[in-house]
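Note to self: the last two entries modelled the partners one at a time, which told us nothing about the interface. This time every component goes in together.
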Amino acid sequence: MPKRLFSVGLLTLGLTLTFGTAQAQSGILKLPLINDPIMNPVIAPDLGSVLINKVIFSGLVRPNEDLLPEPDLAKSWTITNSGLVYTFTLRNDVKWHDGKPFTAADVVFTFKAATDPKSGSRLVSDFSSIKTVVAVNPTTVKFTLSRPFAPFLTLLGHNAGILPKHLLDGKPLNDATAFNRMTPIGTGPFKVTRVVPGASITLEANKDYYGNKPKLAGMVFKVVPDINAQVAQLRSGELDWVNVEPNNIASLQNDPNITLKQANAVQHFLVFFNQKNPLFAPAKIRESMQYAVNRKAIIDGVLKGYADYPTGTLPTALKKYYDKTIKPIQYDPARAKALLAQAGWKPDAKGQLVNAKGEPFKFTLIVDRGNPSREQAALAVQQDLKKIGMDVTLQPLEFATLVRDYLLPGKYDANLIWWTTPPDPDQYSFYATGQDNNNAFFSNSKADDLLKRGRETADVAQRQKIYNEFQRLEMTNPPVLVLYYPKELQAIRKNLSGVPDLGIRDALRRSEDFQLK
Amino acid sequence: MTLSYLLKRVFHALIVLIMVGVITFFVVRLAPGGPSLLADPKLSAVERQAIEERLGLNDTLPVQFTKWAGQTARGNLGNSFLYGAPTVDIIMTRLPNTLILAGTSLLLTLVVALPLGLASGMRPGSAFDRITSTVSLVFVAVPVFWFGLLLIILFAVTWRLLPAGGMNTAGQEGNLGDLLRHLILPAVVLSAASIAEILRYTRSSTRTVTTQDYVRTARAKGVGQWALRYRHILRNAAIPILTAVGLQLPRLIGGAAITETIFGWPGMGRLSVEAALGRDYPLIMGITLFVALAVVAFNLLIDLLYPWLDPRVRAEG
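The predicted structure of the combined assembly is written out below.
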């Protein structure tokens, strides 16, 4: 009997192997997700959801290749009442994926839900400036803001996909499980045709799309939780585009079918120094950190060079606002020691930094566990600070624990973390006194004033001036220690073309131009 | 096997389940951190509060416990935080996938491990025995994620023979050939360790049995090789093997977290990882209770199988 079983097994194996592999699916782009997404842009909680939503849902505007807003669902707009009233004229040729016409009522519905925390919205703070939103007629929407808010257009083109009122009206967005998980309806270039929980989401080109006709026949978002498995699937042709970490590059560099591209990411990686802790309150101490940490070594060693060297908290990706005239601060431990001495910290006989009372400069640096780049960067920071006599303990923690139990309650000394921001220089909520995301408790009245004026000023030249001033202030009174501006590393199969030079988030908003040969 | 014995066992099972539920409830909630939905440092205080309210996390722990206990007693395991859908529904969509993978690897395990274990147990010390012993030692020791990635790189990347992951090619769901091709690698990885384990059990159990008088008698009266092996030896060596297989079953139902994650297999194991990482309390509770139920049920089933396999147990029992 076992003999027969064995031969049956061999037969099956042979049969299945002769089926051949990777049936060529022409024109179907395959992208990875790490878990099932929520296909609703207003409540999407993670990057995977944000990405798939970019191709299903359109916004009023979208970022062009310079990350500036260009028309999308809105044909045109006017800004009046010194930046308080935005009036959008909508396209009249747009249909939802279920065939119903798109109107101003959908826009009003979307932003009412987006500004209501009870709906489960993740965009409440993005759009807290909206006072009223009304449909003037089916193709005209008028937003009235409670204060001038320069990033408004950029934020409209960022994550604010428009939702269909006729399918979602009447209950919190969070409760629309069927829509969010199985049958989302948008106006974007691709529509969902099939969802296999835990496995894949299949989309086909939207033939009624109002813009350029999509060149791809469709897309498949596959759930592949493990990054090494994603890389393997990219190499075997089962995925077409995977964003990778610097430590994955070695296995991809020599693959003739794969291109490695760098894209700008609007991110800054940083160390929070908790300024409620008297140790970090003086600006001199934080200034000295910029000399004490060898950031070039971190970029070259840990990130294999795939990052830009930092000045302040505005990353180089914000081309229009990043002040190129500021000279970045280079590694200079002697200078760091001199600054620390001015602040009252001098090395004792053993080389340990102590203050007048003989207390050591001692603190704990926390970092999230599991990401090799961040763990290694944290280790480098610890070692550099040890070299100038600080007593630094490194403590890796699970991300959720780090955020909930340490960062948000302010119960930490120092924390290596990162911010991903919309493509706008507004950093009011991060670095103005008492704001929600100011987890380092930085407080400086001049910075507050600049950040407030920056978000209220629409004129680009004036805004540039304001943010240049802010960046200069940061060099001597840094709110945080910025470590680097990372590049997004895109590993793409060579037969995929038409991808703009943008980060994947913004590139996917132009997915109708993607093409597979 | 009386009815009262069965009732007693069911009653015990119920107590075990309640204890598992209560302990898990407090362990997951008292662990540091919290639901990943709240772990976004960018959330404003207002957004955070709305989420906590919706998930029922703003109540005190005793209130949360009372609510949960009342709900569970009425058979409602609640909605998953991450999926927003009833926990039971989510488990039920993943369970068949795990059963396919687990069933295949169990079959593979038995088909490979039993004959090999029997053969090496009958000739201990032979070259064949030494080879199988060494190979099984290697498979017990090799880390699953490494072995999985190795097979992916060889079979999917280098030789392009098999798909690197997933359960179906998208759009090919229901195509048996496609499913089988996706099944081979994860099933091999998942069964590698259990083949080695069951092989060792079979080998030692066989060794004990082959020296028994009745085997010698059977051999002396000229029983054929196959009949000797499968009717006389394997049947008598079966009890410890059955126990070992029984111990594997709950692990198979609970899903193989690492194998399913590496191969992107949409089963229970990956669901548990997702639930644990996301601190999806209702889903963690649901999966734990479900697996506990499976363990209890399988133990009962194995106990009921013993007397059928071995009349001596029946006589004593």
